Design the sequence.
């Protein structure tokens, strides 16, 4: 849809790149086409028809909802196929719908740095089976983001190489972004502990796959 803004003596920019000035000119702003977004959804629906539960492009958020067990397979295809080339994982997030069944949804935001298109992949998760397969083997950064989703929402990522809390301490009870988490809940006190590894050693373990001996060894 084209949108026009009328203002006195402003430049006119058309979709053909021409520019002129004049009294009460019209500034034309054209929204980009949605063909590629629709094509991404079509690709997933064609290749994984039996796994797709829903799809839409509401408010510009091009989205496919799929069965959780198929997530690694679908994301790997989107990452490797030359037509999609979703080589950047922007985010992994989670939504707690509380009284809805299934209660949770895990959301993956994928982006192609070559093709400049984005797609959200959503997967429903049942409350009595709060597990998801990991995609840490597909994107190195996923190991960190999955730890955050586990920490805040309690979604357990199966086959994750090191599923520990990342924002809270290990003795913390519960998952604070769940909607049923008591706002005034007390937490156990713990003594200060020496760090096991520093940031550089964590980088070696999760990015370079090198052993981290620890910088505080005697």
Sequence:
């Amino acid at each position: 849809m084209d949108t026009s803004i009328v203002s006195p003596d402003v430049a006119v920019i058309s979709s053909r790149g021409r520019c002129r000035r004049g009294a009460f000119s019209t500034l034309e702003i054209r929204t980009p086409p949605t063909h590629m977004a629709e094509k991404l959804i079509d690709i997933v629906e064609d290749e994984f028809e039996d796994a797709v539960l829903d799809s839409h492009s509401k408010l510009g958020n091009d989205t496919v909802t799929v069965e959780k067990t198929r997530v690694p397979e679908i994301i790997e295809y989107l990452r490797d196929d030359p037509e999609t080339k979703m080589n950047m994982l922007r985010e992994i997030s989670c939504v707690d719908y509380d009284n809805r069944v299934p209660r949770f949804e895990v959301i993956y935001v994928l982006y192609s740095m070559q093709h400049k298109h984005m797609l959200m992949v959503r997967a429903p998760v049942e409350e009595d089976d709060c597990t998801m397969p990991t995609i840490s083997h597909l994107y190195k950064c996923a190991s960190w983001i999955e730890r955050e989703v586990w920490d805040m929402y309690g979604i357990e990522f199966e086959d994750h190489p090191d599923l520990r809390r990342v924002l809270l301490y290990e003795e913390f009870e519960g998952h604070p972004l769940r909607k049923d988490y008591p706002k005034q809940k007390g937490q156990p006190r713990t003594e200060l502990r020496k760090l096991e590894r520093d940031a550089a050693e964590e980088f070696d373990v999760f990015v370079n796959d090198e052993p981290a001996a620890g910088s505080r060894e005697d």
The radius of gyration is 23 Å. The CA atoms of residues 12 and 20 lie 5 Å apart. The longest helix spans residues 35-47.
